[in-house]
Amino acid sequence: MNKPTLLAAVITLALSGCTQFAPNYNADLIITNGEVLTIDSNMSIIENGVVVVKDDKIIAVGEAELADQYRAPKQIDAQDGIVMPGMINTHNHLPMIAFRGLGEEGISNRLFAYFFPLEGEKLSRELIYNATKLGAIDLAQSGVTTYADMYYHMDEMAKATKEVGLRAVLGQTVIKFPVVDSSAPYGGIEYAQGFIEQYKNDPLITPAYAPHAVYTVSKEKLQKINQLSKQQDVPVLIHVAEFPNEETRIKEEHQANSPVEYMDQIGILDERVVLAHGIHFSEKDIELVKKADAGVAYNPMANAKGATGMAPAWDMYRSDVRIGLGTDGPMSSNQVDLWRTLSYATTMQRLKHDDRTIMIPEQVIEMATIGGAKALHMESRIGSLEVGKQADIIIVETQSANMMPNYDPYATLVFQANPSNVDTTIVNGQIIMENRQMQTVALDDVRGTIDAMEADISAFANELAKKAIKSKSLMD
Ligand SMILES: [Zn+2]
Questions:
Q1: Tens digits of residue pLDDT in 178-217
Q2: Which residue among 70, 132, 302, 377 has its CA within the 20 to 30 Å range from the CA of 336?
């Protein structure tokens, strides 16, 4: 055997020796060395687990050895961090981040005497686009991968959300008075048509209707929206039972016992609806919501800050109602991420029931992930780390002082973690943030526009606050 032939034989032997260890399957991304919270139906946790992604989907989840079966151009070592589904914020008005920190002087009639006039004066297409970009970066940096929103000019929100790379259910507001995107009352219905048409088959954006509330939208328009949502198969997002006097008003105007009973009576409570708040739900309301298979967004931090009450979230959870967590808008809870909301979800329910055994951390994390997916009727696609689901994944580091020790990952997440512990955020298979570095839109890209916006809003907002503080009535 001459030398080249010998060399060829050695190479062949070496290669054949390797093939039995070589990875068999192609993937795009392999996450290794993490404590994987799958949030599957058994709430399985995999120590030193692996998650494999191809295109926009999760194709394998399992023990460390699983990584050997796959080859991928990108590997992420989670370094003992917690690997979990991205969190789902089920209720927001993200562009109000432009006004975050305003109107905190103790205004009683904050919604009507402050929010609405401020929006009337300052909202524009441009502001909605720029503010959404800032908000979406804030969400991505804190581990929220899907959010549901009710606002105006939803096409601008969709554009900014997609640039950052998040998933969203975007509800075009319908309300009985003229607003920024409609000079006529109820113009939101027509606006929604175009928006739904444009985004109906988008991989990240789910277009929706958002009738503001049962007291700001007529019965006829609510029924029309219900009809359209059925025809177009899109969700309907609505505020319900947020204020105590909603009930009195519904009784007077529509002879129904509660906003939910009213919705049921006029035929608009169905499986496409997501009810934001539900603070003043009766037992019967919970039964009706359950029967209709509607979703509920529980916003404990916003409800505490606004002193609007404590929703019967534990009762809904135990009754198997589709319930997820939300923050409400950035003027209501000032944070768009869910970290503090996790803790409020627990503490508010324990205080309400005078019972420290309820709403344990595992249940709260369930609510923030698969619970949110269920509330938005998206549980077949998102909310857990399981084969076939969309690859919406976050890695929460456990090396910072506030994350140590980490005996029970659910308790660590609910009671110790904060947004800055989120290390990596992946949506639909795309890495949005890695090692705290944004990969899509950087904060520096929006800083200039946000500074200019702040300068423009400041003086008007302060004058408005002086007037608003004298207004007493809650809902007029
Ligand atoms: Zn709201």
A1: 888 999 999 999 999 999 999 999 999 999 999 999 999 9
A2: 377
Token pair, residue 29, equals 């991304």
Measured in angstroms, how far is the CA atom of residue 275 from the centroid of ligand 1?
10
- Give the CA distances from residue 70 to residues 32, 35, 73, 323, 337, in Å, rounded to whole numbers and listed in that order: 12, 19, 10, 36, 33
Question: How many whole angstroms from 213 Cα to the centroid of ligand 1?
Answer: 10
CATH class, domain 86-376, is: alpha beta
- The conformational region for residue 33 under phi > 0 = left, psi -120 to 50 = alpha, else beta, is left
What tens digit of pLDDT does each residue of 15-43 get?
444 444 678 899 999 999 999 999 999 99
For residue 150, which phi and psi values (nearest 5 degrees)? -125, 110
Cα 353 to averaged position of ligand 1 atoms, centre (Å): 25
Q: E-assigned strands of 78-140? A: 82-85, 87-92
Q: Round to whole Å and give the CA distance between 216 and 177.
A: 8
Note the pLDDT of residue 245: 86
From CA 394, how far away is CA 390, in angstroms rounded?
13
- Scored b (16 or more CB within 10 A) or e, 184-223 reads eebbbbebbeebbeebeeeebbbbbbbbbbbbbbeeebbe
Q: How far is the CA of 149 from the centre of ligand 1 (A)?
A: 8
The encoded tokens of residue 367 equal 């609510």
Neighbours of 265 (CB within 10 A): 15
Residue 216 tokens, joined:
């700001």
- Element housing 396 (H / E): strand 393-396
Distance 396 CA to ligand 1 centre (A): 28
Distance 391 CA to ligand 1 centre (A): 28
Give the mean model confidence (pLDDT) for residues 294-321: 96
User: Rounded to whole angstroms, how far apart are CA atoms 365 and 345?
Assistant: 10
The residue behind tokens 């606050």 is: 465
Residue extents of the structural domains in the chain: 86-376
Give residue-wise pLDDT tens across range 38-70.
999 999 999 999 999 999 999 999 999 999 999
Report the separation in Å between the CA atom of 169 and the middle of ligand 1, taken as the mean of its atom positions.
Answer: 14
Span from the CA of 93 to the centroid of ligand 1 (angstroms): 6
